[in-house]
Amino acid sequence: MAEYNLAVIAGDGIGPEVIAEGRKVLDAVAAQTDGLSFRAVEYPWGSDYYRETGRMMPEDGLDQLSSSDAVLFGAVGDPNIPDHVTLQGLLLPMRRAFDQAICVRPAVLFPGVESPIAGKAAGDVDMVIFRENTEGEYAPVGGRLYAGTAHETVIQSGVFTRRGTERIIRAAFEHSVRRGGKNKVTSVTKSNAQAFSMVFWDEVFEDVATEYPQVQTESLLVDRAAMDLVRWPEDFDVIVASNLFADILSDIAAVVTGSMGLAPSANINPEGTFPSMFEPVHGAAFDITGKSLANPLATIFAVAMMLDHLGETEAADRVNAAALQTLNERQVVTGDLGGSASTQQVGDEVVRLLGSAVD
Ligand code: GGG
């Protein structure tokens, strides 16, 4: 029994198209659930806003969002604005300001979906990637000297705090215990080459692991992990890695499990003092923007993660079940999955199946 304040930032590219379907599904499940409602406020921020104002969001943008119960986010990026301007102007400041330190990215090979890796059947691949989300290689620490001269000097530093590193590693172990199954956590670093930050990460991983003797552990170098995700994806269960490595590995995991169009992401504020944010892993995808070709299921799965996070587990289960049925029946799927349905038709189908589950 709750009314939630939801901040919606559809953003750029295909963001508005997939967010429209996510909201359609959210409204439908809320309408079916006694006492559940969402007061949504749309924030028209992103690259168009930047063209008008020189900023990706207003100066007090984060203040405006801070009293929301959750943020639903589409995508960021524009072919005519440098990527570091769009990303550093909206998404990354939000993750840092709201201390959304724990990024959770599940990757599952669902019934009805074909993996590009030969011989993998539904259920064979089922992993969750825990991405450190507020520091690491994405910390805006560095500088550029003598630009454009022969002495040009550029420094980009990584930031690894004990608090941040412990938090993400502990969150991965806690999830492994809750999840059951293989009971395995794989930590991914590059500690043979990065002898400060990544050796530190390995040490923290070993320390935290002692608190979870029931969980099997593994440490892989990122190059090995990238190979293994392609050749033996079924070996992975829970993966924990730094901001950059987990960002890259989660894209590999998404394509191995069928499509970037299926990969959701939760950006969790562990203390609950700020809103958490839910988004598809994919970006703006300019090549298909405005063509109704985008797969909205990543956003719909992100909506389910948001419902779950808010404690609306029954509604989350219903959304997941309707999305899975859509995939399994394969009648209404987008081109990335071999179908010909539009973005809107997939959203409509999930809503239809939600309705039929209740009847
Ligand atoms: N839906 C998320 C999005 O727009 N992703 C684009 C991107 O470049 N993301 C980088 C990141 O997640 O750190």
Overall description:
This protein is α/β, with parallel strands linked by helices. The chain has 2 domains: 1-103 and 271-359, Isopropylmalate Dehydrogenase (3-Layer(aba) Sandwich); 126-256, Isopropylmalate Dehydrogenase, CATH 3.40.718.10. Helices cover 41% and strands 20% of the residues. The protein contains 11 helices and 12 strands. Strands 2-1-3-12-11-4-5-10-8-9 form a 10-stranded mixed β-sheet, sandwiched between helices. Helix 1 packs across helix 9 and helix 10 crosses helix 11 (343-358). It is globular, with a radius of gyration of 20 Å. The mean pLDDT is 97. Glycylglycylglycine binds next to strand 12.
Low-pLDDT residue spans: none
Write the H/E string, N to C: EHEHHEHEEEEHEHEHEHEEHHH
Number of domains: 2
Largest beta sheet: strand ordering = 2-1-3-12-11-4-5-10-8-9
The whole-number mean of residue pLDDT values reads: 97
What is the share of helical residues?
Answer: 40-55%
Write the CATH architecture name of the largest domain: 3-Layer(aba) Sandwich
Number of strands: 12
User: Structural class of the helix and strand makeup?
Assistant: alpha/beta
What is the H level of CATH, i.e. the homologous superfamily of the largest domain? Isopropylmalate Dehydrogenase
What's the CATH class of the largest domain, please? Alpha Beta
